[in-house]
Amino acid sequence: MAPLLHRQATAWLFLLSALAGAAAVADPLGCSTLPAGTESPPPPDFTGPLQHVTIGSHRIAYRRVLALVQESGAASAACAGAGTPSPPLVLLLGYGCTMSQWGTRLLRRLAQQRELILVDHPAQGLSEDLEGGASPMTMPVLSELTLGFLKALGLHKPHLAGFSLGGCIALKLAAEHPEAVGKVVTFGANSMDGRAVLGSPEELGALFTPTNDMPQYAPFFFNTSAEAGRLAACRWIADAAAMPEDKPKPEANQRYAAGIIASVDPQNTAIWDALPRITAPVLLMGGLEDVVVPARAQPELAARIPGTRQAPAVVVWRYLRLTAGARAPPSCCLVAAPSAWLALFPAAGHAFFSQLVEPVAATMDVFLQHAGPAAGPGEAGLALEKAAAQVCDGSAAAAATT
Predict the structure, then answer these.
(1) How far apart (Å, rounded) are the C-alpha atoms in residues 226 and 108?
(2) Domains of the chain (ranges plus CATH)?
(3) Residue 166 Rama label (left phi>0; alpha psi -120 to 50; beta)
(4) What phi, psi does 344 have (nearest 5°)?
(5) 65 by DSSP, 3-state: which?
(6) pLDDT by residue (tens digit) across 80-133?
(7) How far separated are the first and last CA of the chain, in Å rounded?
(8) Nearest to 343 by CA among 384, 397, 282
(9) CA distances (Å), 231 to each of 42, 101, 356, in order?
(10) What confidence tier does 249 reach under pLDDT thresholds 50, 70, 90?
(11) What average pLDDT does this structure show over 332-346?
(12) Distance separating alpha carbons of residues 3 and 67, to the nearest angstrom
């Protein structure tokens, strides 16, 4: 693995400079001719005012989305009986992303049961580096700044949900600062070190082009060669357009790309080595068509994370083999395992959470409601099994129609 990652890093550096000036193609996905039902959602009225907090030399931009009044039929059956206050859910972004890219549909669904806190990474989007720095944004830097953000807001063990790079930060915080973290959900994460499972150098080099925007990211986040993936990408772009404007910065993208390349040094296994120290409940989620962080990364991470020792039920999209050339039909099942929860979704890529909003949110509801030592035998375990089975059925139906 180490020689391969070294070649990947070398290829990224070359491709970053080679592709930085690539011209964008207007509407490459054909989103201007969307069929009925895929048009832009109504403007959001729930994201809250833009706020800032200063952490060292960084002015961090964030928004607090208050829990919405439950709409009839809007919440999953997994949430039945939920009435106790839930800790806020802090949403951490991936490379090249800003708060707007979570989109209105996903945020409305997640906010049905809990407060959400959206945040732009340091120096990215509406956040600022007050000293105008240019140094790489490495994992140690990002995790410390994120920890500082949680403390500055006075949050007591909030839940964290992170996409890609954001999921890597969440796992690192859970391993190194268990006192600061409640439950952890990741979307397409890896260990972001020398043991990271990553896509091809060519794809990652193109992804890291600093001037990319959402249409250029879409082929890496969705399977746009399939109609369902193309429509999902267009919906993702429309959802972001309905959010308050928040554009990524090319100069910040360069710093983050450099930090990622530094982090995947073959000699660096810091996060991988720390994963067994995680005590917080963790839900690892991924898309089976992910080309940025291939799906096999998720069971590998799950095997490293002890989680609760009482063998909770785990929602699993069981892909019989994750190796190329063995594409057996996926099925949903419940298994018992003493590791992290694992949910893998078929026919979806890196941004599966945007393509399959309801199945993903329902899985999160089950996890956030039931995960923990209490989710063993007895009443809590039975409630979990019933709710998780409903998630499986709903995910199967969604996968069949998207």
Answers:
(1) 27
(2) 2-20+35-401 (3.40.50.1820)
(3) alpha
(4) -120, 135
(5) strand
(6) 344 456 899 999 999 999 999 999 999 999 998 899 999 999 999 999 999 999
(7) 35
(8) 282
(9) 18, 16, 12
(10) very high
(11) 62
(12) 47
